[in-house]
Amino acid sequence: MLIILNGTITNLNYKINMQEYIIECLYFDKKKPAKIFVWEEEEENPSIIEYKDNTTFQYIGSFKVLHIKYIDDINEIEVSDIRTYEAFCKLVKNLEAKNIRMLIKGCSLQYSMVKALKSTMFTVKLRLGNEINFQKDKVNIFEKEMDVSKIVTLEEQDAFFNKWLDSLN
After folding, report:
1. For 133, which of 28, 73, 86, 139 is 20 to 30 Å away at the CA?
2. Number of structural domains in the chain
3. pLDDT score of 119
4. Domain that residue 83 falls in
């Protein structure tokens, strides 16, 4: 698959097990289309930068590293990590810095990724006072969010997650 962005050709044909998602984003209150590509690569001794504090960890040995590439008409952003949650948060943070909000469940207020699962592409709906029903409430992080007003920052999602946790007591 060849992608042309600003005259530059990007070849994604060599990626094994690549998944592609076509999504919508908000950029200064205007909707625009984008594509997301997700794949894993086996890497030796990968260096991973944490999204919260920018510390670098050097892993020793062979690891599956998840890559997520975002492409729209202007931007091309690629992030990676050995944990899906961390890679996704890196992507969201990069897009937030450019005033781009993905209109997906993974960025929706009442949804939270299952952080403990190393390679999950799912998010679950949180209902105050109720435990998670994984059979009923699990959706792909890149599933479209129809209600634009529910799209929030990572910090707002974390605050809602903590509120949900407190509501279980």
Report:
1. 86
2. 1
3. 64
4. 2-167
